[in-house]
Amino acid sequence: MSLFKRHQGRGTTATMKNGAMLITVADPKNPVSEQFRTVRTNIHFMSVDEPLKLVAFTSSNVSEGKSTVTANVAITWAQEGKKVLLIDADLRRSTLHATFNLSNASGLTTILTSSASELDLNSVIQDSGIDNLSVVTAGPTPPNPSELLNSKRMTAFLDAIKPIYDVIVLDVPPLLEVTDTQALSGHLDGVILVVRAGVTQKAAVARAVEMLKISKARLLGYVMNDVDSSDAGYGYGYGYGYGYGSDNKK
Ligand SMILES: Nc1ncnc2c1ncn2[C@@H]1O[C@H](COP(=O)(O)OP(=O)(O)OP(=O)(O)O)[C@@H](O)[C@H]1O
Ligand SMILES: [Mg+2]
Questions:
Q1: What range(s) does the AAA domain occupy (predicted)?
Q2: Which domains does the chain have, with CATH numbers?
Q3: Alpha-carbon span 189 to 200, nearest angstrom
């Protein structure tokens, strides 16, 4: 049994072209969907008193499963009735428009490059087709993604959407490739590191964790993606590790 096509080597563009596989929509009773719900629940347990509102899934390198995990976990939040906004902040390898079959003519880059004094949220927030889930696609690829994500306008955008949604989930670039995620992490309530079983090197994970520490991000835990389970050959796990405890905002 295989729900996902196996990994096609480092840096595959499959998700960029065809979108991420939404198993949580296609087959909510599948054990993999259950694993995504477990990820959601564990994130909730990381901060019961003060719910985490703005979270991002990142990884060390490209193609480790960020977009797949991000979209599916966001869907599980929407499925439990939370009002969710999913934002494609991976401006170089964007996928959300393909995943949800939406236009990418305007998106995050549109609002970040606009010179209008007011933020026109309605022009970039799209209905995903799934109850409770709205989407902001990446928009046209800019020459300066890091600068845009690190801009005052990005801060203003996040401040404007925070009161409207219960959970805001960002699909962000890999830590060891570009500085975008480090720049963004100051705005986030928490970051989850996606590690691809059998692919991600230990040294890369250690370096990614170090970079999160430097940028004072709160690492909530990690998702072990593509775990080779005997019955399926894919899978997800959730854990806490690499020297981070449960409440270690540093
Ligand atoms: N558990 C899994 N089992 C098999 N294939 C998977 C699994 N998770 C992801 N993939 C596949 O691996 C590829 C990369 O996944 P995805 O696009 O979600 O990763 P990414 O980290 O967002 O990549 P990028 O760095 O390009 O943004 C896709 O073809 C996806 O279908
Ligand atoms: Mg991606």
A1: 64-197
A2: 31-239 (3.40.50.300)
A3: 25
The answer on pLDDT for 172 being more than 80 is yes
Token pair 């797949």: residue:
68
Mutate which of 1, 2, 3, 4 for ligand 1? The one with the most ligand atoms within 8 Å of its CB, which is 4
Pocket of ligand 1 contains residue 21 by CB under 6 Å:
yes
pLDDT in tens, 130-148: 999 999 999 999 999 999 9
Q: Convert the pLDDT of each residue in 198-228 to its tens digit.
A: 888 899 999 999 999 999 999 999 898 887 6
Question: Is-contact 189 54, C-beta < 8 A?
Answer: yes
Any atom of ligand 1 within 6 Å of the Cβ of 60: no
Which residue type, as a one-letter code, is found at position 194? Answer: V
**Ligand 1, closest atom to CA 233?**
3
CB 54 within 8 A of CB 105: no
Cα(64) to centroid of ligand 1, in Å?
5
